[in-house]
Amino acid sequence: MSSNKSYLEVQEEKESNARSYPRRFPFVIEKAAGMMIHDVDGKEFYDCLSGAGTLALGHNHPVVIEAIEEVLKKQTPLHTLDLATPLKIEFMEEIFSILPKELRNKAKIQFCGPTGADGIEAAIKLVKNATKGKSILAFQGGYHGSTQATMSMSGNLGKKQHLQSLLPDVHFLPFPYEFRCPFGIGGEKTAEISARYIENLLDDCESGIASPCGMIFETVQGEGGAIPANIEWLKEMRRITEERGIPLIIDEVQTGIGRTGEMFSFEHAGIIPDVIVCSKAIGGSLPMSVVIYKEELDQWNAGAHIGTFRGNQLGMATGLATLKYIKENKVLENVKARSRQFFKRLHALKETYDVIGDVRGRGLMIGIEIVNPAARKDALGHYPAYEEMAKTIQERCFSNGLIVEVGGRHSAVMRFLPPLIMTEEQTEAVLAIFEQSIAEAVQ
Ligand code: PMP
């Protein structure tokens, strides 16, 4: 057995029907380095999925591999529950060093289970405990994980319609999605109206939302379709929650650790959240999640949030190596430069191809919404989402050697999440394949 075909037959026969990525990327990975993946048939791919945004430094970066080797050499225990090791302390200090200075000496960190969802669950427990509030303010189109509680707070209903036991008391508020404005307005006004609507709803607590324990959102919705929240809106959410004493939880699982061009995405708005949830890139390729929060929220009892896998030393070593590398190698500057390069070319492509309805994002979290120019325009003057075309473009990209994910409410947004260290030449190569693939798809 050695070909994609023969391995995939086994996968299809044995693995759950819930498997997702293999349906879109039917290959078997033999090895990977940087942003390149090689399959068992010897074909090479540019990886713009990066483990769903996890691989800040791409695959198997030398500093990551070295960090793992070091742990093994030093006989650091691989598993420690939440007991201390010198490595854990160093990792913690490194995380604190990247926090905005307003938080640096006033924050606490909670190590959680290995997934982003674990971190979100812990954050909700933390604020529920501290505020004694019950209801959660979440957003349409948001995504926070696949456990029962995190799904309850995730906005795109499709996937969970069949589940009966989701958390009650979740209120979905309108996210400032300018292209598909929920109020039929569009553009920057979307954010203004969303903020006013939310403020009124909270003012009218009797009929609106009583005793919220927290508000949670991503500053750029990832799975929701690379939708960046307007900066003024972010500031408004901070003001509105602050005035009402509602803890603001920012889900930095996908946006965090440099992805948007700042270490934390909320820094673009100059705001300080009460709670930050990190996962994905903070583990430097390995499973890790942490919640960082203002110390006044630290009101839970010893053992209030436990979990066996909170001491993954390999993940701490790779996370530490990744944070240091980002700091020492001007990676954030590269994110900004590559982002400009992407947007320049993608905006030009939008002029050429009428299936490109919207180009958006922040840093290296980029979305291209594919639309159907043969259909009727909506009230905002935009064509409807075109899922089949997005799928065809994705298939063309894949056969041309480019891995790019599709997401969004209607599965019509091409989502680029490349490694933060991709080079100018790699960016050109990726964009050339993308353009060729669109040209082939619309033929
Ligand atoms: N929050 C956000 C913003 C995410 O993008 C994801 C994963 N895509 C999660 C939470 C959940 O993370 P995990 O899949 O590791 O549970």
Which helices and strands occur, and which strands form pairs?
Layout: H1 4-14, H2 21-24, E1 29-33, E2 36-39, E3 44-47, H3 50-53, H4 62-73, H5 86-97, H6 101-104, E4 107-112, H7 116-131, E5 135-139, H8 148-152, E6 170-173, H9 189-203, E7 212-217, E8 220-221, E9 227-228, H10 231-243, E10 248-251, E11 275-278, E12 289-294, H11 313-328, H12 331-352, E13 356-362, E14 365-370, H13 387-399, E15 402-403, E16 405-407, E17 413-416, H14 424-442
Parallel strand pairs: 3-15, 5-6, 5-7, 7-10, 10-11
Antiparallel strand pairs: 1-2, 2-3, 4-12, 8-9, 11-12, 13-14, 14-17, 16-17
Helix pairs in contact: 4-11, 5-11, 9-10, 12-14, 13-14
The site of 4'-deoxy-4'-aminopyridoxal-5'-phosphate has 15 residues, from helix 7.
Pathway: Amine and polyamine biosynthesis; ectoine biosynthesis; L-ectoine from L-aspartate 4-semialdehyde: step 1/3
Keywords: Aminotransferase, Pyridoxal phosphate, Transferase
Enzyme class: transferase
Radius of gyration: 22 Å
Average pLDDT over all residues: 95
> If you consult CATH, what is the topology of the largest domain?
Aspartate Aminotransferase, domain 2
CATH class (first level) name of the largest domain: Alpha Beta
Low confidence ranges: none
Distance N to C terminus:
37 Å
Oligomeric state of the chains present here: single chain
Small molecules bound: 4'-deoxy-4'-aminopyridoxal-5'-phosphate
Largest sheet: number of strands, sense, barrel closure: 7 strands, mixed
Beta strand count: 17
- Determine the strand fraction and express it as a percent band: 15-25%
CATH superfamily of the largest domain: Type I PLP-dependent aspartate aminotransferase-like (Major domain)
GO molecular function: diaminobutyrate-2-oxoglutarate transaminase activity; pyridoxal phosphate binding
Pathway: Amine and polyamine biosynthesis; ectoine biosynthesis; L-ectoine from L-aspartate 4-semialdehyde: step 1/3
Protein name: Diaminobutyrate--2-oxoglutarate transaminase
Family: Belongs to the class-III pyridoxal-phosphate-dependent aminotransferase family.
